[in-house]
Design brief:
This protein is mainly alpha-helical. The chain is 60% helix and 7% strand. The chain is built from 8 helices and 3 strands, in the order αααβααββααα. The chain has a 3-stranded antiparallel β-sheet with strand order 1-3-2. β2 and β3 form a beta hairpin. The longest helix has 29 residues.
Length: 184
């Protein structure tokens, strides 16, 4: 792990020449990894306080703000086998954080969504994580904050353009009908 001191990419970030784009992108990736690792402690604490596994946390975050996803969509977006996703959702349902309901258009299809308690749980975790991030961001100058906002907006647009920004886009959604349908 590289320290936070000056880096070979720093001159390019200040407008100096001599560092190629690929090196700079590599350095940004390293810094993003380092920041993610350093942020894991706070995120892990919130998950542990709620007795959540990483898979359960990912499922809660995925379902937050969604109308209701099929189990195939949940499995696809979380990149897990449908039977594993079903187990994760079942444990969250047992805790009262998610519910499965019949699809209004096709009664065989079950949709998964957060309950009010599930929404409150995710909101609490997100609020803590956001508070931690904003405390860190307060160390930045106004100019740096403006740059960061602009960069994040650009990255969000780029992610959406790649088609990975929304749940259930493409992939194998619907490929596992047995996980979504009620045998009755």
């Amino acid at each position: 792990m590289r320290g936070l001191g000056p880096s070979p990419a720093a001159p390019a970030a200040t407008g100096r020449v001599g560092v190629d784009r690929e090196e700079l992108i590599g350095r940004v990736g390293e810094l993003q990894d380092e920041f993610a690792r350093s942020s894991m402690r706070a995120q892990s604490k919130e998950m542990l306080d709620q007795h959540l596994t990483l898979a359960q946390f990912r499922a809660l975050v995925l379902l937050h703000g969604q109308e209701g996803l099929t189990m195939s969509e949940v499995a696809d977006v979380l990149a897990m086998r449908p039977n594993i996703a079903t187990g994760v959702v079942q444990r969250l349902e047992d805790r009262g954080w998610v519910e499965r309901t019949r699809d209004a258009d096709d009664g065989r299809v079950r949709r998964v969504g957060l309950t009010a308690d599930g929404i409150a749980t995710v909101d609490g975790i997100v609020t803590e994580a956001r508070s931690d991030f904003l405390d860190l961001a307060s160390a930045l100058t106004d100019e740096q904050l403006g740059q960061m906002a602009s960069i994040l907006e650009t990255l969000i647009v780029a992610r959406a353009a790649q088609g990975r920004g929304a749940a259930g886009t493409g992939g194998a959604a619907g490929a596992e009908p047995a996980a979504d349908t009620d045998p009755a």
